[in-house]
């Protein structure tokens, strides 16, 4: 087998973006002044910045709070630091193992402090006191080690304002980056944003698909929903003659999903929702519920931590597995009622040497044309970032992470100091699954790491069938070198790796 590199496009330069940043929400618009060198640098830094009407809406909602904007900004900075260090919830089994290990080490460092006199004089009170002290020490150690996970709770307007100042811009940038993975000709009519929070999902969807007819936003926090509603209201200085209060004609706000599964959506978005659920079982129940309400696509986004990526992989593998597990009883009953049951189908179903996936593939070919194969859940395939529906080659201790650059929004007039040009970078991981079988011969090889070293570039690429491969190109490769060099980590590889047959004794990758 020999691999042949075939270019798939002509223009390789990333698109440039004009950037307008707002320093202070309470003041008039002010454009960040940057040097000529910084302006040149920005052409090569793709940014996803909030639209101006989103900044105006946030300003209006912030000024309606009872606290001074500078105090809210200070609270937002503290919240941003806590969220950045926040861990994905550990499973109860892992927590118990950690607690037992900590307790064992504490006990091993202490001698037996309960004497015979203590036992006779005080009974079990001394032992109870020591056990209480030991539990407190274990709790302190667990807390310092960031095992003190709790769901994020926002109960006041000021809390919602601080959260929006901290996360609206990075959340928008993460979602907008993920929406770029969709085909240009895809135009959804209905979108569900589960865990909508500060309405970052709405702004990203509205920018990418302005013709979407309906956007439903679900969040269990009343304070967060009311704040989002305030930020989405139209400009009151020029009332709309139609009398519709929001910037979109059809926005629905809900605390919970509708019980009926008849209401479905073309796209379902769940941004940093899995990290708010402590139980793996509950997370999968939510994923199943959202998948049943999905017409075509579901988007899952979490932080860049390996544990958060593990949570996304858990959801991915659940949908892929359940989507290829056939309901054999229902299949046999349906085919028998229609007088279509063949001996071949029965043999496949009763062959216990075959895996569920093998039976799924064979039964799809064995059942009569036009019949649907009943599975536990609707069949799923990965749109992005995975170029395959197989197991992840990175394993459980690594994460497939992505980065997105944005202009932060501050209410105190200060400029972010994280980057020289005032921008910031948010790292995250995501998964987009489609309610369909994987298309054949799709080109989705993904760049995991793009190393630009002088006159050559080395890419670690996640491929469809060969796991992670390393591709090296130098300047002598001309356009191919320029094409790959201009790509970011997480981009689709801009060349096609084609497999052609050979009579040789060895496989050669080139």
From TrEMBL:
A Gene Ontology biological process term: translation
Entry GO terms, CC: mitochondrial small ribosomal subunit
Cellular location(s): Mitochondrion
UniProt KW tRNA processing keyword: no
Keyword Oxidoreductase: no
Keywords from the named record: Iron, Iron-sulfur, Metal-binding, Mitochondrion, Transit peptide
GO MF annotations, alphabetized: iron-sulfur cluster binding; metal ion binding; methyltransferase activity; structural constituent of ribosome
Protein name in the entry: Methyltransferase domain-containing protein
Source species taxonomy: Eukaryota, Metazoa, Ecdysozoa, Nematoda, Chromadorea
């Amino acid at each position: 087998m020999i691999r042949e590199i075939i270019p798939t496009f002509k223009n390789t330069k990333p698109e440039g973006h004009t950037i307008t940043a707002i320093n202070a929400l309470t003041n008039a618009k002010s454009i960040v002044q940057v040097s000529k060198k910084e302006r040149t640098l920005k052409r090569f830094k793709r940014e996803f910045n909030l639209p101006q009407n989103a900044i105006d809406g946030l300003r209006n909602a912030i000024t309606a709070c009872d606290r001074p904007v500078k105090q809210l900004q200070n609270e937002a900075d503290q919240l941003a630091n806590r969220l950045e260090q926040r861990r994905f919830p550990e499973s109860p089994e892992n927590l118990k193992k950690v607690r037992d290990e900590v307790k064992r080490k504490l006990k091993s460092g202490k001698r037996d402090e309960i004497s015979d006199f203590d036992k006779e004089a005080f009974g079990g009170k001394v032992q109870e006191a020591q056990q209480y002290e030991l539990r407190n020490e274990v709790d302190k150690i667990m807390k310092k080690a960031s095992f003190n996970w709790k769901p994020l709770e926002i109960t006041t307007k000021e809390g919602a304002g601080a959260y929006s100042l901290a996360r609206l811009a990075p959340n928008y940038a993460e979602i907008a980056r993920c929406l770029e993975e969709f085909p240009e000709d895809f135009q959804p009519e209905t979108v569900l944003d589960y865990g909508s929070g500060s309405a970052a999902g709405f702004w990203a969807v509205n920018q990418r698909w302005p013709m979407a007819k309906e956007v439903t936003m679900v969040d269990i926090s009343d304070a967060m929903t009311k704040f989002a509603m305030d930020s989405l209201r139209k400009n009151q200085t020029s009332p709309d003659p139609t009398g519709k209060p929001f910037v979109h004609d059809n926005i629905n706000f809900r605390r919970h999903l509708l019980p009926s599964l008849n209401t479905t959506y073309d796209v379902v978005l769940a941004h940093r929702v899995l990290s708010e659920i402590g139980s793996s079982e509950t997370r999968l129940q939510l994923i199943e519920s959202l998948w049943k309400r999905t017409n075509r696509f579901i988007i899952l986004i979490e932080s860049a931590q390996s544990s958060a990526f593990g949570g996304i992989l858990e959801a991915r593998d659940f949908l892929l597995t359940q989507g290829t597990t056939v309901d054999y009883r229902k299949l046999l009953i349906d085919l028998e009622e229609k007088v279509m049951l063949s001996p071949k189908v029965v043999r496949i179903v009763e062959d216990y040497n075959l895996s569920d996936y093998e039976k799924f593939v064979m039964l799809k070919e064995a059942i009569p044309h036009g019949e649907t194969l009943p599975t536990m859940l609707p069949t799923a395939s990965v749109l992005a970032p995975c170029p395959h529906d197989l197991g992840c080659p990175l394993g459980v201790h690594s994460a497939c992470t992505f980065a997105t650059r944005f202009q932060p929004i501050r209410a105190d007039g200060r400029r972010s100091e994280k980057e020289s040009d005032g921008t910031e970078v948010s790292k995250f991981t995501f998964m987009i699954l489609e309610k369909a079988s994987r298309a054949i011969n799709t080109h989705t090889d993904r760049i995991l790491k793009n190393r630009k070293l002088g006159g050559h570039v080395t890419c670690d690429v996640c491929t469809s069938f060969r796991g992670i491969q390393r591709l090296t190109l130098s300047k002598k490769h001309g356009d191919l070198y320029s094409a790959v060099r201009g790509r970011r980590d997480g981009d689709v590889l801009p060349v096609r790796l084609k497999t052609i047959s050979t009579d040789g004794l060895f496989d050669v990758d080139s």
